[in-house]
Design brief:
Length: 146
């Protein structure tokens, strides 16, 4: 089966994490990239470490990875940085849409299966059954407002 390239998109967030608000929708909803997966059925675990440089540049290791359509993937994410980070796995247009919402409501709590917000030093996981039919682009949005 042909491999599809997935991209990671991240936004550095300042302030207290998970303070208030919530996305519409939430776990169980289908997204362009896939839908919530069953961790017991994961065929691949990808470990991602998030950090930042002194000048605010976001660093993510790895920044790109390959999965197959229909594969269930668990992504273990560690925020080894000093600021809060958000991890979002989606198509570029959806990432930019999400960025606009986050600019309006920076303290919103996340309930989407394809994203997680982590305070510095914390770890978390997302698990998705991948449905992409084409490559997603790597997008590291500029943390400044659009």
């Amino acid at each position: 089966m042909k491999n599809y390239l997935l991209a990671l998109a991240f936004v550095a967030l300042a302030g207290s994490a998970l303070a208030s608000g919530n996305h519409a929708g939430g776990h169980g909803e289908k997204m362009a990239v896939g839908e919530p997966g069953d961790k017991a059925k994961a065929t691949q675990t990808i470990r991602v470490t998030m950090t930042e440089t002194d000048d605010g540049k976001m660093l993510f290791t790895p920044a790109v990875f390959s999965v197959r359509k229909g594969q269930t993937v668990k992504i273990a994410i560690k925020n080894a940085g000093t600021v809060d980070h958000e991890f979002v796995l989606d198509q570029e247009d959806k990432i930019l849409e999400h960025k606009k919402v986050m600019e309006k409501f920076p303290e919103m709590e996340h309930a989407d299966a394809n994203s997680i917000r982590l305070p510095a030093g914390e770890s978390g996981e997302i698990c998705l059954e991948i449905h992409v039919r084409r490559s997603l682009q790597v997008r590291l949005p500029d943390p400044r407002p659009l």
